[in-house]
Amino acid sequence: MTPDDVELVQSTFEQVRPISQEAAGMFYGRLFEIAPEVKPLFKGDMAEQGRKLMATLAVVVGSLHSLPTILPAVSTLAKKHV
Questions:
Q1: How many CB atoms lie within 10 A of CB 69?
Q2: Range of the domain at 62
Q3: Is the pLDDT reported for residue 42 higher than 80?
Q4: pTM of the model
Q5: Could you tell me how far CA 51 lies from the centroid of its own chain?
């Protein structure tokens, strides 16, 4: 990513942050709409799942300028979700 790309993603995410719970709800709503077969994988509290999603995105977006430092953690998280 170019520095301009990073700035664009980070500034756009800042606009989403105030409505993070609604954004998470829209994400999962759309996910279950296009891939209903994954819905049974989400058995817990969806509000908590949304908070975790947005917190993870905040860390990733905030670290875009130094991706190598977060890639191992993101890779581990992705493997857990396979």
A1: 9
A2: 3-80
A3: yes
A4: 0.83
A5: 9
